[in-house]
Amino acid sequence: MSMIEFHNVEKYYGKFHALTDINLTIEKGETVVLIGPSGSGKSTLIRTINGLESINSGQLVVNGFDLASKKTNMNKIRREVGMVFQHFNLYNNKSVLENIMLAPRVVLGRKDDENKKVAMELLDLVGLADKAESMPSMLSGGQKQRIAIARSLAMHPKCILFDEPTSALDPEMIDDVLNVMKKIAKDSSMTMVVVTHEMGFAREVGDRVIFMDEGQILEDDQAKEFFDGQPSNERARQFLSKIIKH
Ligand SMILES: Nc1ncnc2c1ncn2[C@@H]1O[C@H](COP(=O)(O)OP(=O)(O)OP(=O)(O)O)[C@@H](O)[C@H]1O
Q: Domain ABC transporter, which positions (predicted)?
């Protein structure tokens, strides 16, 4: 069974056609990078995977569950599919440790000893074990984003969605976050779907690269083919040459 399957998916915001005939299969354990110009529908697509955006027609199956079916428990999907946002979305009135321990306690009923142990291991993984008792307001953007990643991992998701995780960061912090993401991609069996403009990351870590424009998938290639060969789609080639020149 694949992790994610889109079949002829359409999405509208009012009259605006945001996703057109999306067909896409992502296998378990794959790291897939979604690229494309601003407004091409990347965020919309990634947000449909955990039900943050609904679809208008077609079929979307995540870990065997049809998201359009009334029988599907969306809370279960959100437990299994974590998300990391551009703007971190940490609870600012809770310590770093509390941010990481909250959902496992409330949603999974994980006991405090075990919960703290998992949280500390994850803080270690993201290189911030010394910040456990800090409040988010004391952290830099890059540190906040690494905490947001640890918080998401604490739920032991099967899949994790990253929606432009480095776009709001100062340049010197971007690599710290990308390095954590690389580590996760290499060392875990999790499925990762990443919207990013970081082509170095896409090339090094992505198994596949999906190029979107105007709500459509125009190119779906192995990362190596995409960067070392040439995308067959003209707009994908233009996008790539522009982005690599800059
Ligand atoms: N809630 C909404 N209501 C109406 N239109 C929306 C909504 N969300 C997104 N859109 C529109 O849908 C289109 C696709 O937006 P989306 O955010 O998915 O693109 P994107 O490729 O992620 O862009 P960016 O790289 O700038 O984040 C855009 O034209 C946007 O204005």
A: 4-239
Provide the pairing of β-strand 65-66 with 57-62. Answer: antiparallel
pLDDT at site 245: 58
Domains defined along the chain, listed by start: 4-245 (3.40.50.300)
Number of Cβ atoms within 10 Å of the Cβ of 123: 21
Nearest to 102 by CA among 124, 125, 94: 94
* Tokens linked to 240: 């790539």
Q: Which CA distances in Å does 183 have to 156, 175, 180, 189?
A: 15, 12, 5, 11
Centre of ligand 1 to C-alpha 44, Å, is 6
Query: Does residue 43's CB lie within 6 angstroms of at least one atom of ligand 1?
Result: yes
Enter the ipTM. 0.96
Residue 26 one-letter amino acid: I
User: Looking at the chain, which runs of residues are DSSP E strands?
Assistant: 4-13, 16-26, 31-35, 57-62, 65-66, 81-84, 159-163, 191-195, 208-213, 216-222
Place of tokens 């070392």: 228
Stretches in the chain below the pLDDT threshold 70: 245-246
pTM score: 0.95
pLDDT of residue 243: 79
Q: How many CB atoms lie within 10 A of CB 120?
A: 16
Q: What is the reported pLDDT for 229?
A: 81
